Fold each of these.
Amino acid sequence: MGQCLAGVGGAGLDESLVKLASGLESLSDEQLIRALSLFLGERQSLKEKLLGRLSSPVDYQEPPARSPDDLAAAQGLTVLIHSGWTQPHLHCSEVRPGKPLQWTTPPGLPLPSSRVEGFIGSWWAMYFPSCSKLEFLFNDGGSNWQKNGGGNFVADGCGLWILRNGTLSRHMPGRAVPVARKESAPAAPIARMCAAGDAQELAQAEGGVVFLYQSRWHQPRLHFRCGEDSPWTQPPGEAMSPSTLLGFPSSGGWWALHLPAAAQFLEFVPNDGGSQWHKAPGDTNWKLSRAGAWKLAGGKLEQVLSTPSTIAIPAPAPSLPQPALVPEATAAPRPAPVVQVPEAIKLEPITAVKLKDLLNSNNMVLLYRTAWTSPHLHCRELRGSVAGAWTQLPGLPLPAASEAIAHDLLDGSAGGTALYMARLPEEVQGMEFVLNDGGPHYRWDKAPGGSDFRIPPSDEKADGHVWLLSNGRLERLLPPPAAPDAPLVVAVTRTAATLSWTPLSSGVKGYRLFRNGKQVASVAGGVTRYVDTGLYAAHEFSYAVAAVSTQGVIGPLSEVVTAKTEAAGASGPPSGLRVAMASGKGVKLEWSAPEDNGGAPITAYTVSRDGEDVATVLADDSSAEKLTWTDVNVEHAGEYSYSVVALHLPPAGELRETVLKKRQATIPPEEHDFLLDVLEDLNVGEAGEPVHATAVDELEVGPCKEHLRDQLAEVQTTKKGVTVFYKTNWPRAYAHCRAREEIGWTDLPGILLEPSPCHSFPASEGWLVLCLPYARSLEVVMNDGGRSWDKAPAGANYKTVTPGTLLLTYGHLDPVALPPQEPCNLQGEAVDGSRVRLKWSPPPAGDGEAPISCYRVFRNGRVIGNTESTLCSFEDKNLFAFTDYEYSVAAVNRQEVMGPLSEPVQVKTELPGPPSEPRNLRANTRKEAGQLVVHLEWEPPADCGGAPVASYEILRNGTIVEVFEVPNARLESEAQAARPMDPEAAVERRWVRSTCSYSQLSWFRDALAWDDINIEMGESYSYQVRAVQLGPERAGELKKGGLVQRCGSRFLDNVLPDVVSAACEPAQVRAVPFLDPPRLGDQKCIIMFQAFDWGSCKAESWYNVLLGLLPELRSAGVNMMWLPPPSDSVDEHGYLPKKWYVLDNHYGTAEQLQTLIGSMHEQEIVPMLDVVVNHRCASAQDSAGRWLKFEEPDWEGWAICCDSPAVPGGTGARCTGEPAQYAPSVDHSNPRIRNDVNEYIRYMMEEVGFRALRFDFVKGYSPNFQRDYVRAAGCPFAVAENWNGDVNGLHE
């Protein structure tokens, strides 16, 4: 050990250290460990340094006191950094070729002060004896970091490296160095506790800065420096002590700190010891340019020139222990004068029950109007210039005011609020206060501007001292207004009395009118007249009036005046007579009591039908707003007229006696006698206008016409009926509707829609119809009988207020225009064995018809396509050769309403021709049963040429290596005959089968696949595929197997040998096996690299950019790359996915992605898939106009959470996490959704080649689903993005 140290002694080691090391060589390992443990137990700081050095990934030392030239010529690497931070840290890693970077633990290594000659003061240094290249950045030990622009600093080579003002340079021997300063780096100034006394005198006597700070923080701290070149204190700074200086008491939130006499300049920022910092306006630091006593309060910094005489205390400050500051070293402080501070306020019991008692008391009273259920008063007394102690939070609970006080104070309990009160002790004549809801989260009610409410001290006691706080306004209550003069009775009728009164001179907000001692009206101050209605005839009533002050205080009542109403008379007609419901089972009438009851109660009503009395209805419940009666003696669709009259008493007889007995038992005797005095000729009231009804249900369903023109004509003739055509993907559709508001809605789910018999809206295309022949208006919402609803935009209902035939599509309910007429002169000719060309003339245009948008073409009675715009020609492709086909055409208008079919035309195809080339050839490598294979997939030709494609030739590098045979079973499965039926049958039923085209065969739509097992590792291959038509030999096999030729054709008898298509576009692949996926729990080092940013999508092909970077990334140690989301997306970044299986996006094509992933496997870099399945964007709108139709995989509104805010209308379960605001949230609780997600992940891993998973926005759905997805994928390495700013959320 001694020789080893002596060998490096030239680097600055003392001779004594070399001798010590030599002496330790005689000790055993156990003795050395024991000695080291004893030594480090006494030197804790040394122990921490040793542990830090042993755990560091780099070897480092404190540089010796040497010259820069010596360090530049020495082995290893030295870094010198200039910084004004109190304790900078170096976060670094040694750079070794072919090895991954191993960084220190943030914030890094604490830098020691430099001892290098010429670099003393604000210089910091670190020596790395075994390092030749270092990558680093440095920081202040907290959140402030110094970087090289946006990157890291790199010192490449041994020697001395100097970093100053953001520039890193290498020191060359002989270069000038800064002037050496022998003094050590200045230490941060030490603050002291302020002694009690006068702040200005203390600053003058001892110099420096006496700083006073007013704050509600629990323990403020001061982060400061005393000069431009002086170091800052270590954040968060020095703890301030509660002030004992005169005029700045700690109870008022004042804190103090005395800085040393050398402090003639001060730059500082107060803080709470955590994240709250109080900065100057403009987000800058506070600065003082001279010594003295200074105070900072309310955002204003000013010098203290004299001790305040008044203590202004904004809020209480808790009693805190003194911080451990440097004790005062000067003369003993002078004692402060004694100030008598009032104690905390306590409320007195409430004895007054009326407002006038409060106004006449000598106590201060606070009335508070609020919606809080438990308000608290947080306050302190103001006595002269002295403020008392604050109450303990949350303050004093306020009791509710009595009902009498609330009544005396207008609106005392109005608007959902209540009135509370506080009665303070008699000696309290001033108060500062705020109110709160009692906690625990504390809502506060403060004065405008956020300040406290203040009631200044007052000696007035004789006239009371009541204050009202309401809606943020504090005002002192004045005495109530005087009583007005007695009101005058201006006019009297059978049911009303008109009164007026003389207004008071001033200070009146309004008046209250009382009848028989009860309030009946409240009017504004400018109103002095009121009509009291709803009175009984021949009755006497007493009236009085009271005034209400502008503060809402009610005064005494006036003298009473009486008024007697006139004798009773006949009543007016009942109000609002209408037909509430009509059907073949009855007609329900509804009405309300007359507006004029004639001055006497109404106890019964007479109902007449077609001029004859049919029923007497008793008004059993006089408080009921509506009365009803149902006529059940009706005939279906019968027309009736009804009228109703009101009766004071029913006609003489048993019914009248029943009413009188009931009134005698429940009504006071004077009212009972009064009703008997009504004359018989005045007993029956006036009759109103009759109402008419048809005894049929307006929501009764009727048949729809087959021809749209007939349906439109019927509505036009009868002036009634609502028909709605509707198309949906639901298995069933229901109309939840109502014909009129008063009738009400149908029972859920509503009326089942029937398949449409109308030719313009055929049921074969999914059209349904709701036909209501008796409805004159309709409000409707469609649904599937479960949780899926189709509503108008903004969640409204669909409505029509007139009869008509309507079309409900894409979220709009529109009247149907007249359909187009049938096209003319349809002609057809066979182009070859697989194509037919059609031509026709447009139909004549009629009045009321909508413009034609396209034509719909039918083959053998089934739709095969639409033309582009109004083009009158069409070419049908991929047909069978030697086969008969029947075509017809219909015009379609802009409402997608189709007119009648044209006359049909018969066409027979000709001799077959060669097929077109196969489509969409794809190639990738995979392992099958432990063997590396190339997997090919392709699709059949777009046109088979008129005969079946029976096989495919597979070419590798231009040579046929395999012939793929289409199995006979697949050819025979769709080869049933489509024989013509009855020629007189309707065209849509004339054919058994509608396919008769290769494009409709299931096997034709399937993808075809083949594996090439004869490949060599590392070789590149080019593959092509050619289609081969059915030959004579294979055709004979099919005929022997019982295959019947289609549509009377004889193509199996006329097939040609060796008819081959052109080769498809080649697919390139390199025979490199996919890496085995890393598993969760593997013990291996993984360096995951994010291989894109928000601007990467703007490159022409980001996949190609990454392809060129793979060798450099691999040499840097990267062995896993997080690639951008691969699927087709609404946004350019890929995080609003649309079609999962479409892999062409803004980062490149699917082929470029496959090439990149294959190269990554070759470079042994694991591709990581960005799994964005929390949300998804639709490809099209549904029938309601909502963006809820998804493709690849195909979903609809059932897949979206019902509470997803981005696109309303989802009918899935509620979100199991945070709903996405920018795209529909996917319902992962649905098993079908989970299966689709698992299948997508399987496809991307097994077919495309991803090997690890990164789940996006995982806080959007339950972690249980994410766990299941990872397990279903085989537990590959997976990470998740939980972006919420709170690491504790990960544990939850």
Note: Residues 107 and 141 are 6 Å apart (CA to CA).
Amino acid sequence: PTERPVSGAPGHRFSMATEPAFFVRRADPDDIDTLNALYDRIYPEDAVVLESLAYFHAVDRGVLRKADQRTKFLLSLIETSFIAVTVEDEESHVVGFAVLDDTPLQLSATEDAGTDWESWFQDTFELPGIDSSNSLWFSTCLIDGDPNIMGEILRTTFSTMPELRSVLTFVPATITEDGAMKILQPFQSHFAQLDMMSDELMAMTHWAAPSLEGHPPMVLSCNRSQVIAPLGIRIARVEDHDNLAAVFDAQSEVVTSVYGDFFIAELIEAQNDENRALVAEVDGRAVGLMCLTSDVDINVLAQCFQVDPYDNLLKGPYMKRVREHSRRLMEGQDAFLCAPGDFLQVALGSMDMDALLDSIPKLEDGRINAVQLHGALQMQEFSDEVGEVLQEFEKSIMMLFWQANFLEPMLQENSLLFPSKVSECVQLFMNLDITERKAIASEVLERWAEVQDILKLTKEAMAGPGEVETEEKEEKYEENLGDLLEADTTVDTVVFFKALGQEEQGPFTQDFLAKLLITLHWWGDVDISSPLALLPEDGYREALEKVMQSEEGLFVSHPNSPSWLANMPPHSKDVFCVNMFCLDQAFQTQALDFLLPAFSLFPEKDYCIITQPHTAPNTPLLNAFTIVPPQPQNTFGHVLYLIHRASLLGPPKVVSLKPHLLEQVHPLLEVFEEETRQEIISQSKLFLQERKASELEVFVVDFDSQVVGLIMLQMPNADVVDRLRCCYHLDDYLLVEHHETGGFSNKGHVRLLHWVLNPLFQKYTRRLLQGALRICGKTALFLETELKESVSSIYRELLQVAPRRPPQLKKILREPPKVASFCNIEEELPTEEDLREKERQQLLRNLEQTKALSIVAKKLLSETKIPVNARIVVVGASDCGLSFLESLLSIPHLLFNSLTLLAPGGLEYHHAHHLPLVAGTAAYSHQELRRIMLELRVRILDSRMVHIDRQQKCCILHDGSMLPYDYLVVATGLQDDALHALKIQSMGVEHVTDGYRRVNGAMSAADPSIRDLLVEGGTLVKSLIWNPLSYAVVYGRSLNAYCVVQGLLLRKVPAKKIILVLPSRSQESQQGDISVNAFYEGDEVEKKIHHILETMGLKVYEGYRLLGIQQCTRGRLKGLIFEDHNGGEVVPLPAEETAERGREKRFPAPEAARAPMGILEDFGASPANLPQKLLACRICITADAVNVDPDIFNSVHGNGLVYDGRLIVDHSFGTTDPAIYGAGSLCEFSRRFQRQNSRYLRHDGFNGREVGAKLAGALLKRLDPVNGDSVAAGGVGMTTTQDLPTASMMTATEEESSPDLLPEFYMPIAKGGLLPGSLHYYRIHACRRGDMQEEPSIKEEQVIVTDTLDLANGTGHFCRLTLDAFGKVDSITYLGGEALQVESLWSLVGLSETFLNYLYQRWRDNDIPDIVEFLADEWATALFHDRFMDFCHQIKLEMLASEEVKDLINKALEGVNLKEGLSRKLLTDIRKDLPSESVKQIQDHLLDYLQENTNHLKTYFLSWQWAEQGARK
């Protein structure tokens, strides 16, 4: 079993000089035998203690007394409780076991008691700080003596669960005093009894009932602070340097060597408002440092990460304005968040005005010429946004200079001025921030009465005496001041401002008026650009009010601009950053103590962020943060972690939906489509109406009286879990029988219908799920996702369960007979169970199923998935690459955040809508990949790698873009090499390698775009159908070649327009490669296929090698040149033809001069002096011998990676670059690992799916902090080779003597395709064990063949089985019109022939005319079951454990030459002599296997079923 520490964190051994060390890990069901032994050691037979134990565990005494029932009870606790841990000592002996749950065991074990313990607890003890979100209860505790074991359990539990505040133990009142002394002994050192605040006793039927004597139950409590003392956090001081330097040096010597010995003191001394530093102190010694800064570039973060849900790290009001601005821009409207003055401030802030003034020549008195200033300003350049607004920057500055000195005339060409005056003017302008501008406007408006009087007097003075002739007019004028203000008299602004000055007895100083004038012009939307500007009728009151109502100018670019948020003011940012952190290793689990003081230093900021390298190990501090997903175009080299201030206030709580909370749910549902929103609302209302009668449970997530999430669950019908077990590998993750209710409502499964949560609280997802499960009393949750619809983001927190395959050979089952015998029998009406079974079988066999299953058990919610941020790039969507990704994603405790697959052409199921065209490996079905949600968890790029930059650790793609990696996996496999050998790139490949050319019409079967090029109804296919001069040549002997021929026929291409050219077989199998030949020489399948082609009239030319390709002036394919290997004589070309050919090389022939299409013509001699032929055609599709892709070869070989016919890798699939791995048919294990028996080293002899899984296991040693090495766990890397017990230390001789370092491979290799005649072809054979020449030839008695195939109508089957020397099935070949389950054929390879109902003897006696029909009978379904191999493996292990069986086999093998194999007689003799006990054991295991899998294996009638039928009778 995989042993994992609690919560997936690395286990810690705490030891003192005189104390033993203990290791706490997560309990596993395989621990059950050692736990039973531990129980027997601690609690020997004692009736009093046994009775008290039964009360303590809320079970009957018989459960603990009987070993089998106790085993079931302990297994149930491990499987269904929140967390179960096992403690081991230094010698790996189990010395402790504890189970903690979110409810007391007595409450859970009481029928209809529910799970609400909080109301009783608060009524009894009145401790509001203890609730279900921060407390756990002991369900059981087995400790072998040492009290330090309990301390280790508590320390590890509190360390790995930072939100946990209390651990409680419920002691029933019925426990006797003697029993309590024994049972509660482990709790004495760390727990204290809680004082009851209420004397009221519960009823005797209550789960917390008193004893018969009236004694209440007890609750023992242990608080976090009793186990882990909080750190003292304070502001850092310079004198902390020595202590902190020691902490830094213990973890990294790089810091002081790069930054100097006193960099910490300098850092602390440099603290200011933006940069702060905190220190953790223990016993007066600094043990940790956290440096913080509020100087954060939010523009870069917004460009590289998906921070929009967090308001792009801006404060709410600012982000609201930015969003509105962006919306208007995206709609094509004009939008500005800045006044002209804001743009001018940005422009002036971006330039050095003093340096510009210094560059202008000065006169003797220090003054400069205005013309020269004008010219210097004219040369300034700004960003596009600023430049568009300030198109005449120099005029703006000249005008600003006059506005600051408005009583003086404007500057002229010959004006002279002091540079200091210009600087003062600019400084005055830059100081006019929003606060200053509003203060100026406010002061003017407060004294508006005085301003009005001055305005009246100014207008009166400007009107002149002629207009005020009589006293009567003057009196009327004073009665109505408004008349004068509305008069037509015009007033110059300068005159009015001069009248407002104190020199003219006005209220304002001249400096104030200059600021006012500048404010009105640049931010009040009025024109005061010259002394001639006229005063408006209202005296600028409207402009002043506009200034008062204005908001701060935000210089925001277009949302798609790289500088979108680059100029946001510092106070608008809502974030600060941890830019340095270090903590002594002994206190790492207390790192969260820094966060609250950190936020207190920046009270106006709500977000704290950390950036870390992708390969940095996960730490307890980072566990509190949320990882922000990157943008697709992310160029930032780190991972972004984020936490909100609210997260420190405590976790949100799960509560049942109440009517008054329904309105708060509506805003959360905006992420759903309208139909889904209405469905959620209607179901929520139905739940509120029916409550307990409803099958729904609706919860809301409450935080500070706000609804921040919604969880909707559904109680499934009783048969749903059986359906899931039948259709998915559910039993691989759950012990389902322990989650069954058993008559109580505290166990069982529940379906998740809908989930929505504010992203700020995403970190609490697992605890919220746990809360929902606790309230509804369930222990397992599942989610069925329809992949055709939108998928909830919660799937990342769940485990994806792979679908199961039906145990059958044929995809379409045979119809059952209409009658059961010779006389008609009335059919019985199906029962409800029969109907459910029929539905399950239909779902299991539905090939178009698009549902995916995700699950999580309560026990898994206690550990947060460990994020793995390393950027893993897989090159090639081969079986190996896909299996590697699938294996990584199947690890329950790891969450891979950065997996990328380079898959030119996409995944196979992306082309499911196309007609069949090329062969497949049959390793993955279309729906299998889709239903494990691979595409949702892996970024799939339709792109090609053309180069590797090892220094920058990135892949260069064909479009020039760079894809960074931390680990690169090259799994491209081998490609058809026919065109590459001629330096021609396939037509559909976008990138043309240097030295290669593209010919329009020449393509390879390995071309990722071949399905699109030959799409039904496409240009090329239409040309083949309708153009009489257009022919297609398919070249090659591989299975792909025959499949392409059938693909063209399916696309309605006439057979006479297709030519199949087969190279000579002698050219295959060079250098020991596995042959690409579809069929061996004389193969019956080949004969049948060629007969079909001949019947169709399709030409087949055999024995020709492709030498060259001719193309016309337009780059189109003109003809193919072949070398004849059939022994013909060279026919020399006429002299004029030879000259013509030479001329054609220099001047390609025009389109009109073409050779006859589809006919082989003599074309002189080849360089090898063999006959040469010319075949004119328009389309050529090659599918011949394979080799490395030229781009991959250049990438690998050009970077110094060892390539010797294959990419050379070590036993861990590593190359000479530790960051680059290789696997699949492209690769080969180093010859240093060669066995003396010539073990096959090239990966093309192994199943790609198995190779990918082994590769994942090798890489996980570096990625998995739990089961990997110390570096993966965040430990200090080794620097000396003396401490590295790995293969890298070994000499070549030692490696050769250690062949066991290489992984073993067992899975068979399969390939299949649709061949001409619409016949399905499958070939499955065992993986390679040694070199071809080492393998013995197949004898006649090792081949079983049946042939009922009718080529005329495609009915019947051709099937050939070969057996190896030990009587095991070595290969299976099938040809027929009926599609079979390839996985079922897989399961037969490697089985002894006797498993197949003595197939050979019965076939030899002519009892089996058709192998396929024989194996399709129901007796064989057990062989095709997905757990049959596990059953065989279990029997094998038990046989190996029997000394009697081993002696029998060794004796029988004496004198037998194993190279010649085992005779059937020898095997029969061994079977006869097997001990009866062993035979009985095998039979019992077989019956158990059939009984455990009755949901699939309905055919077999077992003994217990016979007994049930007898009982019913």
Note: The radius of gyration is 41 Å.
